Records
---
Amino acid sequence: MPGQSGEELAEIIYIRHPKVKILALTNEDSIYYVRNMLRKGVRGYILKTASESNLLSAIHKVHKGEQYIENTLMERVQKKKQQAKKETPATPIISDREIEVLRHISHGMTSREIAETIGVSKRTIDYYRLSMLTKLGVKNVSALIKKGIQLGLIE
């Protein structure tokens, strides 16, 4: 989408119109992206390569208030969840770059602004953001900042 990512748009729609049921139709098959979209209020997630019957099923389920994630993606999300439970250390390991990004986030910078400041792509910043949300077990930016302060990562 020109000008805004699906993530940004989903979050805006969810905040402004929380009763709207969002179904993401995308080419993005990254489980990190799926999980992030679900955190931003998306109720359904389906790939553009899905069959017509799967698309119709997704539309009907989301319309009824149910969650829909394409089977292949759901299996990968579940597998990653189980793997993460086994691998999660007692203290999350946050990289120096992630801490740098977290500091910028805590100063109110957008992903695009952070990307320009440190010389990487916006998508890389979004990855760092999602990685920290996952590692620290939080669901939004304010909780991420709070957890960062509690752990002494930022002031």
---
Amino acid sequence: MSLKHEIKEFARSQGADLVAVAPIEVYSDYLAQVRDRLAETSADMRDYMIQPEDMSFFERLSSPREILPDARAIIVLGVYAYDETAVYAKTRNELRGKTARIYAYYPVVRQIAEKLAEFIEKRGYKAIQGQSIPLKYVADRIKLGTYGKNALLLTKQYGSYVALRNVITDLALPPDKLEKFTLPCEDCRVCLKACPTGALYAPYKVNPKLCINPLTRRQNYIPPELRSKMQNWISGCDICQEVCPVNRKLTVRQIDLRAGFDSRHHASHRYLDNIERTPHLTDILSEVYPDVIRRNAAIALANIGKGKRESLAALKRHIVSAPEELRDYYLWAIGALEDF
């Protein structure tokens, strides 16, 4: 058995649903696409949730040897994330918020990548795990999946509900040669029409200034005209995935016991520690939760409208102790509910 085969079998034994090897190269085409997107949307680094002074972020991301100078291969890992708790049909009626389904599986794929890196290191090679390459772009390049018009990676087996991570190693592994997955996207515009903020401004192109996913995750001010379009998402957004014909054919997987929100296992969970995937919105208005989540809960309550009496009472109770930057959102939500 070759070492490449051993590596793949080990990754699968740890729970990886997708494993493929990509070559080491500078992904200059990706960098050009990022620059075009920045120019077309007038977005800046903060819209991508990157510190404004870190202008070299995308250059590092497109060059794997910035992470490991003697790197010779990239192992891309994917975990299917649509599980038995990911059916969000009744959340609006129950005054619950929604989180993007893949987020709960970032800790799963990270722990798999950590174990795989250890597996490779025990054989005398270097291995660094992370999200240190343009994962969707690389996965598309090696045909592990392909871009849909919603600018997300679509896979044949698991649609777009795949949490990705990579391991960069100095072990020489031959790249995989996979068959391209042909998408039924050519005459379809369902995802573009479904995006409530117009963030999908063209096929395969997303404006990060308008996308609900980063809107819910960054601290930037959210103008009222965008708040009213955010529905009941409190972290991330799956709207363009929910309407996708490819995803509508999926079946749910069993829950991986490692799934959930834990900032120790993923940086994007810093606002989500110990929050369930569809939390009751009036509960997370409390000061024990991060301000970003409280803000999103207030917006979601205003957008749902149902349970107006309960929502109004909770907002009015918590606005008393809310910090100044939150009061604007609470007042807006109160006003929206009173006018409902």
---
Amino acid sequence: MRKLVYVYIFTKFASVIFKYFLWPFSILFGLLTELRYALYSIGFFKRYSPPVYSIVVGNIKAGGTGKTPMVLALAKELTKSKISFAILSRGYGRKSKGFKWVLNNNRADLFGDEPLLFKNKLPHLPVAVCENRAIAIQKIIEQYPNIQAILLDDAFQHFAIKPHFTIVLSEFSKPFFKDHPFPMGMLRENRNSSKRADTIVVSKCPSKLTLSEKSKIQTDIWKYSGDKNILFSKIKYNKITNPFTNKELIHNQTSILLCTGIANPKPLELYLTNKFDAIQTLNYPDHYSFVKNDIEKIEQLALTQNSMVVTTEKDWMRMNHELKESMRYKEKWFVIGIENKWENQQDFNKLMEHITKSILTFANHENK
């Protein structure tokens, strides 16, 4: 027992020493990102101002902060307001290059899982992917000359675009103000880059959030961002359904095998643990590209344990048409979706009123 204690203490000590060994490199990384932004700001590098209203959704900390449900929440509200807009993404993890229109029921390896999910959720909406957002915006406008807005997914660090409105997400349990830039931490930029945001959304909040907790988080964020508008959102898990039959998986004594390839599966694991009799997890790397051998192993494990397979909508996007057709036990597959639920719905309504009004004002000004 004493040896185990010594090993634990040594491991902790070594971890701290190594972390602070990376500190100078972290400072350098932060300074370089600030310099890069400054060079764009003064015009040393060319910066593109889109001729239509542009909304950026991004983050400072790498990983799953909840950008996908945030983009979908914005898109659904803009659709209700009858705003003509398109979604533009880089298409992280795709094997293709250049500008592409995202097509329904196609392959995630061509477009990326998130853009494909956007298109499947909102099939009427133009969705495109491209590494160069400026070129992509021009192509979108050429195809849709009457478009009023562009919604850019994960473009906060894409300084070549000068957006009209920016939303930055910070995860409740892993806030950017408690982290450091690479390689010491997981931040893409210094904490004070939050000043560039128009609104900051604290995502994945617990179901019961006290006023004192909200006040503390706001104070911590404002230390770096200034007096920014802050919203609080929670994850709402939707029904778990079989994608082939639309049959719902009932929360009872069912045993499930949770199969994910997302940045942070812990909240989903906790949610399902409280709903089902038994749960085993099978975690793949973020944005993992599933192959036929993976599907066979998952199904065999589910059969052995007499379990149902549950995966996320994003993971389901990465199981392309051929893989889905080759599944031998389609009755065992179930998909769970998520969406944003607002701690204060009125705050989100006010945000959308502001964005919608800004889009219409900008469009009217440009048309004069």
---
Amino acid sequence: MTDSIERFQREATQRERLSSLGRLSTVVAHEIRNPLMIIKSALRTLRRENVQPDQVRAVAHDIDEEIARLNRIVAEVLDFARPIKFDLAPANLNALARDAVRAADAGVAHAKVKLDLDTTIPDVTTDAERLRLALVNIVGNAIQAVDSRETPADGDPIRLRTAKITSRRVAITVTDKGMGIAPEDLPRVFDPFFTTRRTGTGIGLAISRNIIEGLGGRITVSSERNRGTEVRIELPMQPPATA
């Protein structure tokens, strides 16, 4: 019964992903059009007579930035669209969580992530690199949410917890005391390219969900405006594909 339910969930996830790709085409067209227009405007500047060297350097910088943005958009869409090939092996979940936190808050002056790790968790079979990427995305979002607050939160603004739920499942929870997510935005947080940040691409959580669900787990988000957000991940000790 459990295997049938998990198989149904994986098939439903794949159907939803294909449906999302259809909706994604309109968003991608918009995302690509913006840098193309900037590049077109920059080229008009280069065609002018008597263009100064400092103007050429500025325009070249703008073009380079927009090309990098286009490449990033294409790479993220491909990551979201293609089936993920997992490299499964035993991994220490707590060590993986520590590494993800170090990567997420590298170079962030005010980041403060409290780790609350369950030392009784044995090694889990997972794709450590993929799971680390998902955690870096989630912790990075928490850091940005806290940094966007005008009034600093009291105590530990971000906390990452690991816990053994049963003999077959574990949980990772990331909570922050940021501004929270508006109720009307909460149902869309996993939609590709949905973001409320001016500098965000909106693909991180979509990719993270694909990774977590591909590993046989689930990810949920709860939030309250002006109080913070909680992202909860539940994972099997042994993914269905290897059971």
